[in-house]
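Worked example 2:
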Amino acid sequence: MNKALVAALLLSAAAPAAAIDLAALQADTQTLSSDAFEGREPGTAGEARTVAYLIDRMKALGLVPGGTGGSWTQDVPLATITAAPTELSVTGANASMRFAHGEDVSLWTKRQVATSEVAQSPIVFVGHGISAPERGWDDFAGIDVRGKTLIFLVNDPDWQAAEVGPGGGPFEGRAMTYYGRYIYKFEEAARRGAAAAIVIHDEAPIGWPWGVVQTSLTGPIIDIDTADHGMSRVAAEGFITHDAATRLLASAGLDLAALEKAAKVKGFKPVETGLTASLRIENSIARSLSKNVLGMVRGSRRPDEVVLVSAHWDHMGRCAPDATGDDICNGAVDNASGTAGLLAIAADVAKARPARSVVFLAVTAEESGLLGSKYYGENPVWPLGLTVGGVNMDSLNVIGRTDGFTITGAGKSELEAMALALAAKQGRRAVPEARPEVGGYFRSDHFSLARVGVPMLSAGSGGELVGMPAGSFAAAARDYGKARYHQPSDEYDATWDWSGAVADLELYRDLTLDLARSTAWPNWLPNAEFRALRDNSRSRALRDNSRSRALRDAGRTGASK
């Protein structure tokens, strides 16, 4: 850790600790996740209520508008694509099969067209579908996949390794890289001109059950309304269950288990199955302007230098009804809790009058692929080179206080050492990620800022629940993932234990204030993939600052003559 960051930590040690306002945290979470907000889906009445509520709360806390021209919001152009249920038809020399919408497959298109069709497209199994020349890996060697339907395995080839890091395998061992993320698979298919990209859903390496696909990815699909209206995407994207993929490949005389094993080895060659895929997606399209909400505490001495605190306000809206008929995915934990946490930190920072500005960024459409934060990263209100870094919150710990603290995607930035030092002050130990193979680092809005070079912390409670049997915290987290994550049952519960959330929020707040009071510019670690982006943006900012200072000095000199 460099000397400036050490100085920031010493500063924080001298600052008086304050308690997070628990009553306000609970009230905000309960309100945002109530049925009146209808699951906070972008482009609905639930969004309008959410945005109005956040602005009112920010005003009450003493924040000022953080958007362009004194606005509280940033417009995010979205397209909502609603498709009729779409089945997949597969034919071959000895087979004719149909795979049902929702039960076997979930298929959509991000092309903004009335009809997107794939007709008799040859099916190719491409293993993990990774092209990584810097790692000597190419799952597309020797094949032209233009016009073809690609079947992908999710995650990286070494996701089952015992070790995290380069020693565990070519793709960081058990820790997922971006190559393992299903979104990368869709992007790679588009780059290669494929007709369709279908990922085999497997709960262990993807991190969530098929039920999440059914509630989250069988209804309307939201995307940024780009200039090309999504036409650079493949004609069809989606998931197929592991069982359905097994049957599909077996019809061509192929064994999925054997293919999975072969795909783990460098030199894997794609397999042309002799099957063809056909599907037709009928769409209706609605365009809207969704909102990122920005409130800020203006810095007292260096207001142009900005610390970010982010959380996504959106959730799934109306979704597939559960056994009781409840069809509102309220998203109490995910992410009414994190949005309420953002407000709780804002309340304390507003009282502190820090040297740097702190911008509280509540983003839209995270559940649709980090769209609000992606749009902000590509269209920043505050220059990236003057953005110090910050913290992102996605789903607070309402299970109880833990004895540890976990960095998501550890080993990337200097913010991690600062956060762990603050955790140690709380008496908490550093605990490695329990499931680095599911790629948590790529699944929330900090990643959108990382992709443009801004160091953002993603971290939270880890280890064991204080005073509870070993394994209790992990078991409760797994239960949430299976029974409530992206389900109507993610509702506010008055019996939640907020002690863990409060400890995490106090750490995030103290880190925010450390950055906002100091002159430190935390960077990515030398081997992090985002380091060059950060160095370039800071160099540009320093050059621009020097040029502005020279012009000011020249103006003052001229005025004195």
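The mean pLDDT is 93. The radius of gyration is 24 Å.
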